[in-house]
Amino acid sequence: MEYEEASKSLDDDGRVKRTGTLLTASSHIITAVIGSGVLSLAWAIAQLGWVAGPAVLMAFSFITYFTSTLLADSYRSIHGTRNYTYMDVVRSHLGGVKVQLCGLAQYGNLVGVTVGYTITASISMVAVRKSNCYHKHGHDAKCSTSTYPFMIIFAAIQIILSQIPNFHELSWLSIVAAVMSFAYSSIGLALSVAKVAGGGDVRTTVTGTTVGVDVTGSEKVWRTFQAIGDIAFAYAYSTVLIEIQDTLKSKPAENKVMKKASFIGVTATTIFYMLCGCVGYAAFGNKAPGNFLTGFGFYEPFWLIDFANVCIAIHLIGAYQVFAQPIFGFVEKYSRERWPDSKFIHAEHMPFMGGPHGLNLFRLVWRTAYVVVTAVVAMIFPFFNDFLGLIGAASFYPLTVYFPIEMHIAQAKLPKYSFSWLWLKILSWTCLLVSLIAAAGSIQGLASDVKTYKPFKTQ
């Protein structure tokens, strides 16, 4: 009897039975995709203009969805066994040095995203204080507020949430975060619509910012490159796709459910992105702020802007965990295998947070240290747009395009130089070029920011 009960609570591979559904997977995806990237889209469209801006957005949308279906099909190996992480999938289908390259790209990107979310959440918290200050003292008041205390608050919350042992127990947090992301995106969209309806002296153009009027020739080039990186970041979720898929029940087949979840997630976010980016550009024109809810394109109604920024902070609290959990899992799995007899690593103590898991000292120390380090890095480099662009550029090609395509070619055994092989390779090479261009723009932007920036000073 006990054996039967135990078997019912375990999956076919002896692990804890998965409970994920289309709803939870879609929530995880929306939480991961509609992140801080949406806030920079009005600025990105302003750099590219009415034609190139929406076209680039749609191109990234189609590419992301297409390659996510290829990645979903790679979840199980040819023998039908599960792969629990992105690296496991690459090891199963490609092997060799590509496994290490995948790990470097994936975990480097995840660290970058958690740093980026720490920056963005603190900026939104500061925006609440600034909004109240401007409302009280006027729009020209000097309302300087440091982001550092808010980064510390954000880190403190993450230290507590990081003790949730694994992805399977994060569904509730993702659903809350997904609701928050729709809330602040909708508020930003509504405020942009109201601004457009109210009229005003706003200049938009087919090609975006105008050389000689808004920017210099070199600024136009670099900002265009950076805008492409920002849009790439806005669609970055391939890094956690396999980990999300690994939460799904085995029936119906995980890849079928994941494809539906990816379609729902990417479609919903693309609609929001188009609306927020294009209506935001219509509202602000070529002078669109880098972050359209914290850059104070809007001042009133101040309470609504406050609420939107609180929603951003709550959403990013959840999104941080979606991106941090694969890092936690990777390091802890490696440590358990490396030191199988260590009580510090393996021992579970008293029940934690009312759940089935105990408090593990290694998990407590390592995860706390990770959160602290990401917060310190965020304090040293608090540059919103450039940081987003660089992360997007660095992760888009290897994780969203290269590995899914290469694994599909290997899995489907496509003949070299066949039609399917050629067009997939052309897509891969084109995306590599786009990523290099976007990375160059973001690095140039970061270099410019660093020249005038003094760490740990109130901006």
Contiguous low-pLDDT stretches (5 residues minimum) are: 1-6
Give the strand content: under 5%
Shape: globular
Instruction: Describe the sheet with the most strands.
Output: none
Q: What structural category arises from helix and sheet content?
A: mainly alpha
**Average pLDDT reading:** 83
Give the N-to-C terminal Cα separation: 65 Å
> What fraction, in percent, of the residue positions are helical?
55-70%
Element string (H = helix, E = strand): HHHHHHHHHHHHHHH
Radius of gyration: 22 Å
- Assembly category: single chain
Task: Please tally the β strands and state the result.
Answer: 0
Number of helices: 15
Describe the 3D structure.
- The chain has 459 residues and is an all-alpha fold.
- The chain is 70% helix and 0% strand.
- The chain contains 15 helices and no strands.
- The longest helix has 41 residues, at 97-137.
- It is globular, with a radius of gyration of 22 Å.
Which tags fit this structure?
459 residues; mainly alpha; 15 helices; disordered N terminus
Short description:
70% of the residues lie in helices and 0% in strands. With 459 residues, the protein is mainly alpha-helical. The chain starts with a helix and ends in a 7-residue tail after the last helix.
Write the layout of secondary structure elements.
Layout: H1 2-8, H2 22-33, H3 41-73, H4 86-93, H5 97-137, H6 148-161, H7 171-197, H8 217-234, H9 241-245, H10 254-284, H11 302-338, H12 343-346, H13 361-380, H14 384-412, H15 419-452
Helix pairs in contact: 2-7, 2-10, 3-8, 3-10, 3-14, 4-5, 5-6, 5-11, 5-13, 5-14, 6-11, 6-13, 7-10, 7-11, 8-14, 8-15, 14-15
